[in-house]
Amino acid sequence: MITIKKAVSKKEIKQFVTFPFSLYKDSKYWVPPIISEEIKVFDKNTNPVLQNADAQLFLAYKDGEIVGRVAAIINWLEVGNKDSHKIRFGWMDMVDDIEVTKALLAKVEVIGKAHNLSYMEGPIGFSNLDKVGVLTYGYDEIGTMVSWYNHPYYVEHLNQLNFKIEKEYVEHKHQFSDILIADSKRLEAVIKDRYNLKALDFNKTKDLMPYADKMFDLFNQSYASLSSFVEITDIQKAFLKKKFLNFINPEYIKFVVNEADELVAFGVVMPSFAEALQKINGKLFPFGIFHILKAKQSKKVNFYLIGVHPEYQKKGVHSIIFSAFHRTFQEKGILECRRTPELADNLAIQKLWRDFNPVLIKKRCTFRKEL
After folding, report:
1. Where are the alpha helices (H) located in 5-160, listed in sequence order?
2. Structural domain includes residue 370
3. pLDDT for 219-228, tens place per residue?
4. Which of 32, 37, 65, 68 has the fewest CB within 10 Å, making it most exposed?
5. Domain count, the chain
6. Is the pTM of this model over 0.90?
């Protein structure tokens, strides 16, 4: 018999966070989160997203053992501003038992109906900056710190339960040596001169902080057209600056400004922390922090975000970002670059990378069910 219980106590929330550690203990491809940081995601005192969203965490038990988990999420900004009557589900993991998956998602469905929502979609987090999608291709590629990993049977379960694919995402990687940068460099000079733009490079985090709020404002503007987009609020900006910008090498954040010093484009890259996170197995202390610091010098990097102001889109501004990163990567001896999940139907963004000889390594989907 499957029993579903809401995770409320500190012990239960920790069990919710740590369940995948046993499920994927023998996996070479799963990348564990930092346990203490993952717990903070579900704490209203540490995650400002929860001021505008509700999250209920559920654990599935069979014969007294935890066999699955899921988070039921309602982002009220999304429901109100986007008129999207959706309940999200995320952090979904379970053993290979269709009854477990069925019981977990049935709990999400009950909550969605109780709030008069019209459909459920997942796995997704609170916003566009969270992890997204069930892996459908690329199970033999290591994950990243900003993406979920799962066994192939997750997709089979969702199909059996009559969920339909809502969105598809793709991930690519390319070797630094394969980048054909000549065209970008030529275009960079032309675009800088035509629109009076310049790139900003940083060696210290404190020097880029004056532009941080502007970057999140530009993120809101450049991603607003996406169907699943939820705006970053002012109170979330401070949280994200502390969580991400202090974690990323300042050299890996590039800004483009116009003659009025207004931000018109940005790019954010992170070193690959995947292998380091596997080594520390969820624990920063006592020695995990040293693995993380060492990983900041990794020869592999992940492109995390690129944004261009709507007025400057399709004008070649991306060439300034790409050329700036190429110079930095050349100096640091970067060998491999990887892109985090992009919508498969976003052909415009994929076209930007054609001179990088990208290789498709992963596909993932969110699934939808009407309520």
Report:
1. 10-23, 35-41, 76-81, 98-114, 153-160
2. no
3. 988 887 776 6
4. 65
5. 2
6. yes
